[in-house]
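Record type: ASSEMBLY
Status: queued
Input:
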Amino acid sequence: MEQVESTQTQIKKGYGIGFWLSVISVVFFLIPWVARYPLSNLKADIIRMPLYSYSMGWMTALLGGSILCVLFRVQRKDKDAQKVSLILSALCAVLAGMMMVEAKRDGPALLNVLNSPDQPSLGLYFFCFAHYMAGFIGTRMERSWRYTLPLAIVLITAGHGIGLFLAPEEGMMRDVGRILYVHVPTAWVAMLTYLVAFVFAICSMWTGKFIYDGRLHATIEVGVILNILLTIQGSIWAKPTWGVWWSWDPRLTTTAIMVISFVGVLLLRASIRDAGKRMTATGIGAILAFVSVPIVYLSVKWWNSLHQDLSNPDTVSSTMVFPLRIAAFGMLFLMMAMIARRAHTLVAQLIEESTPPELPKQKKELEIE
Amino acid sequence: MNTETVKSETAVDVGSGQISGGWEFIWSAYGITWIALIVYIIFIWTRGKQ
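Status: finished
Output:
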């Protein structure tokens, strides 16, 4: 009993340190990020000044969560968790590599990669992702909605409010362009949700634990909800701008394939009764379905598409970037809250299912006269 | 109004490519999103309490 308590305390401490470290890193991020918005004339100077803040924040974000996770799990000598931590670290390394490739287009400087003034949102997403995963693996995920849900409500209200009433009209689309403040964040977060599902799929396949299976189920469910919403929003936006509700455009078609793939995984899961087989099928299905995500993302680059090309803060007016980011973070925290709460129920159900029913106590043998 | 004037006015209207109005589309997109998310949140919270 003492051993169990001590382990729980360790996790709490680990998660606490990870959390505060992440808070520090987000402050490092936010200083230059906020400064970048209203003072566009001083942009270059402001960005140059907190160069190392960016680097520090980015690195802390990316590595902080995962390294802490590794350290505390290694301390626990939990073999499965060590594997999970390794996956997380590898994923972070891949993301960092992708960012380096991305940055090379603008300039070869390594500092650009760490600093990334052109793509600060990417760094922020990495921060959130690393923190998020650290929290998930730290087994405290199910309660995280207590702070992510209120945060989400505040940020979404602010982001949508600014987008609807304060942001200027878009040059060509005029007011209809305001749909983008809800559509774009939903699209970003939906894809990120599938990325989280991909990680959980690997975790559940590797460890064979119900906790990851339940979390995977919750994550796919939330991803599908967001994906359906983004498709509806896109369709509503397409009508006044393209003149049609739907077109078999590469971006739209691949998005439809993506949502059908993940709905298929949920249906497949629902059709299997055996818990072990269900876990394996869901894991494999999610990994296969995830293939569609990068295809959707890059579809506008690979094929001629009606849909807008990939955008970044340099191609979007700063007055539009601000509400977009606020709304995007709101959606991100909402996604975290929804997954956490849903996983709480699903994991409990799976554990209950897998626990053998208590046998009735043997009655005393009848005395034979 | 001569033919030239009509032509140029039409060209301005069509060529500008700007969309006017469309608030019904905006409210529909936001409304559907908010309602769907609120319904899903209520669903997962009530299921969680059970």
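Annotation: Chain A is about 80% helix and 0% strand.
Annotation: Residues 57 and 136 of chain A are 21 Å apart (CA to CA).
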